[in-house]
UniProtKB/TrEMBL annotation:
May be involved in the formation or repair of [Fe-S] clusters present in iron-sulfur proteins. One of its GO terms (biological process) is iron-sulfur cluster assembly. PANTHER family: FE_S BIOGENESIS PROTEIN NFUA (PTHR11178:SF51), IRON-SULFUR CLUSTER SCAFFOLD PROTEIN NFU-RELATED (PTHR11178). This is (Fe-S)-binding protein. It holds the Pfam family NifU. One of its GO terms (molecular function) is monooxygenase activity. Residues 187-281 form the Rieske domain. InterPro entries: FSCA_dom_sf, NIF_FeS_clus_asmbl_NifU_C, Rieske_2Fe-2S, Rieske_2Fe-2S_sf. Signal peptide: none annotated. It comes from Mycobacterium europaeum. Keywords: 2Fe-2S, Iron, Iron-sulfur, Metal-binding.
Amino acid sequence: MTSDNDAQWRMAGDRIQTLLDSCAASGAAAYERASELVREVVGLYGAGLERIMLLAQDGPGPGLAERLATDDLVASLLLIHGLHPHSVRRRVSDALDRVRPYLGSHGGDVDLLGVSDDGVVRLAFTGSCKSCPSSSVTLELAVQDAVLAAAPEVTSIEVLAAEPGATGVIPAESLLARVHSNGPRGWHPVPELAELAPGDVAGYRVDATTVLACRVGDQAFAYRDHCPVCDATLAGAELHGAQLRCPRCQTDFDVVHAGAAVNGTHLDPLPLLARDGVLSVAIPAREPAQTMGAPA
């Protein structure tokens, strides 16, 4: 027996083609843009269905729903249709867990204080994140992106400031404008970083910026290619444990703790997180956009 919903979906292809044909009346360019939009949407849902089938092959039962809910691609489709089984607080908490390794590289952490009924998330940084020289980058690019990707219904993020009685509020419009953006202040996938072995140091061109990346144990770190002591490139730098040594002035920088040196200087750290399974680096807006090139 065919339900009304089944009949509606069977007619969807015809309705889509009718809409495309109506776009043709506005010219070839409008028709091509509409066709491209349809291809992108179909491709997204096709990839989602493929992922669902792959996850289902791991075994049915109660665990399947959890695997679907925690997969980035499938979860994004569930969120679009309001079908995600986890609460906003659970999704925000899980998102913060994913960025904690990056915050830990700054000697700090973040606490989730609460999520209000109207979608306001309240956070507090702890440890040296409160005064870390790149805390603004950490907040806007790492925490914001993780929270909004996991819970797009969040209306704003309030951060308990280090000074009592002061609270910094990030407007929702500012957050939503940059979520999953690959433009200014965007995230740029650098899959080559996955090939770094412990102790390796390598340079990459990412969005017109030379990025120096290294791996200590199972954790990767990224910094701008600039020594603040001798004002030169770090090309040729080597790791000695967690210390990155400038080949020119011989200054050691602790890459695990925000690139700090004993003389009070520090490297310029860049957020580096796994997004959709690919290591990606965030570049602030001060650089003009450019496609990533080969390793430096």
